[in-house]
Design a protein that fits this description.
The mean pLDDT is about 95. The two termini are about 40 Å apart. Helix 1 crosses helix 7. The protein has three domains: about 140 residues, Globins (Globin-like); about 100 residues, Elongation Factor Tu (Ef-tu), domain 3, CATH 2.40.30; about 120 residues, Nucleotide-binding domain of ferredoxin-NADP reductase (FNR) module (Rossmann fold, 3-Layer(aba) Sandwich), CATH 3.40.50. About 40% of the residues lie in helices and about 20% in strands. By secondary structure, it is an alpha/beta fold. It is globular, with a radius of gyration of 22 Å. The structure holds flavin-adenine dinucleotide and protoporphyrin IX containing FE. Keywords: Dioxygenase, FAD, Flavoprotein, Heme, Iron, Metal-binding, NAD, NADP, Oxidoreductase, Oxygen transport, Transport. In the C-terminal section; belongs to the flavoprotein pyridine nucleotide cytochrome reductase family. It is an enzyme of class 1 (oxidoreductase).
């Protein structure tokens, strides 16, 4: 139980956190990685450089301060964080390290405003939040360990097949190195893999969604080669240097962006490599249920498009696929090779049969997701029917251009 006095003090700091939250979390991460460089093996350092992780953590802490007396409001956020932590094999012993550096970051940014009274109240509040997360994470660890093929922490897997799916996406098939069966998972879930890359100073951990049906004896991940300045570290390593026989360190499947078992029709809307969790849902739906399914695939063009054959193979009565290219090649013929040019729009979405009675799942780049959510809102699709996932720290979609 958090004391009434602590609640009062923590709530009174909410406006300060709204103003300085990001500066505090930046100071926290800076301290953390200096004092505990081993944490670089777990955190995605690109999210640090681009600022997305400090923003998301600041927002989570600010929300916590605001709702410390109504923790039920935070239920959804707690689950998202716990699922992410479990994928990464976070342990209870790591919590005091994070807490100590977070409080020190607070002191560093707020200076004299961080009175001993405030610091003590936040220490109590942090412990309470940590205990909620540790409790939920332990439940998830135990559940997963008990499930078929389950384990705790990371385990060695061998790459048994590598398949080029498009000019930019390549799949990796993974099986347990010790020969045991792979754990069960729900369509839509992801893995965390930790990579040791030659000539680098720390390991790299990344999440990848499971892209195949959950009825196979392997995990499959499908990875887009990220290019830019600089090029993506792990995706290029996977494409260029990870071959059949390579051993990778893999955590248990996690995530709450999962296909719900219900009778409704399903609409899957994929942007680029965001198709991966939706492919797993599509293959399960096509093979294991008679639910009505519409797969809307948005890709650049035929070179970038992945999974053409698998989408075709999944077609049965009640399964339909719509293909959009926003930069078709001269050889891509509208009406024959693809269904629509440009981005997803109201006309295409509203033409989907039973859209408003469907469960809708979407995933893709941020601008694609913001557009999709805004279209669904315009069409007055019920909030409870809409499910989406980010390939990065969860952010708000409203107001994104
Ligand atoms: C739940 C979840 C599921 C995911 N599923 C998939 C999946 O199925 N398939 C898939 O391909 N990916 C997936 N991802 C994304 C994946 O985890 C990686 O983020 C992605 O592969 C890029 O990693 P990387 O190491 O190659 O790139 P990074 O090295 O992390 O770089 C990423 C991008 O940031 C840019 N960048 C790097 N440093 C900077 C900087 N200092 N300033 C500005 N920009 C910079 C790079 O140019 C690059 O474009 C998923 C992510 C999550 C969270
Ligand atoms: C009360 C304590 C904590 C809170 C409130 C918290 C909050 C969060 C949040 C909001 C996210 C983003 C989730 C998402 O949207 O994907 C996250 C991710 C993460 N957390 Fe925590 N966390 C806490 C403790 C810890 C601890 C103890 C560790 C151990 C090292 C840890 C490691 C991570 C990592 C590695 C990620 C993924 C970061 C990334 O992808 O860049 N967290 N956490």
């Amino acid at each position: 139980m958090i004391s009434a006095n602590t609640i009062k003090i923590v709530k009174s700091t909410a406006p300060v956190l709204a103003e300085h939250g990001e500066a505090i979390t930046r100071a926290f991460y800076k301290r953390l990685f200096i004092r505990h460089p081993e944490m670089k093996n777990i955190f995605n350092m690109t999210h640090q450089e681009t600022g997305t992780q400090p923003q998301v953590l600041a927002k989570a802490i600010f929300m916590y301060a605001q709702y410390i007396d109504q923790l039920e409001v935070l239920g959804g956020a707690v689950e998202t964080i716990a699922q992410k932590h479990v994928s990464l094999s976070i342990t209870p012993e790591m919590y005091p390290i994070i807490g100590e550096n977070l409080l020190a970051g607070m002191g560093e940014v707020l200076g004299a405003a961080a009175t001993p009274e405030i610091v003590t109240a936040w220490a109590e509040a942090y412990d309470a939040l940590a205990n909620i997360l540790i409790g939920r994470e332990e439940d998830l660890y135990v559940d997963r360990e008990k499930s078929e093929g389950g384990f705790r922490g990371h385990k060695d897997f061998v790459v048994t097949k590598k398949v080029v799916e498009s000019a930019v996406i390549t799949s990796f098939y993974l099986q347990c190195k010790d020969g045991s069966t792979i754990p069960t998972f729900q369509p839509g879930q992801y893995l965390a893999l930790t990579f040791t890359i030659p000539n680098t100073t720390h390991c790299y951990t990344r999440n990848y969604s499971l892209s195949d049906c959950n009825c196979k004896d392997y995990f499959r991940i499908s990875v887009k080669r990220e290019t830019g300045t600089p090029d993506g570290v792990v995706s290029n390593f996977l494409h260029d240097q990870v071959e059949v026989g390579a051993v990778l360190s893999v955590g248990m499947p996690s995530g709450e962006f999962v296909l719900k078992v219900e009778d409704k029709p399903v609409v899957l809307i994929a942007g680029g490599v965001g198709i991966t969790p939706l492919m797993s849902m599509y293959k399960n739906l096509a093979q294991q249920t008679d639910r009505q399914v519409t797969m809307v695939q948005c890709a650049l063009n035929s070179q970038a498009r992945a999974f053409e054959k698998e989408i075709e193979a999944g077609k049965r009565a009640g399964v339909k696929a719509i293909l959009l290219y926003d930069q078709p090649l001269d050889t891509d013929v509208l009406g024959t090779d693809y269904d629509q040019k440009g981005y997803l729009d109201l006309a295409t979405l509203s033409a989907i049969p039973n859209l408003k009675d469907s469960a809708i799942y979407f995933c893709g780049p941020k601008a694609f997701m913001a557009n999709t959510l805004s279209l669904l809102n315009t069409l007055e699709v019920a909030e409870e029917a809409i499910h989406y996932e980010f390939f990065g720290p969860a952010e708000a979609l409203e107001g994104v251009n």
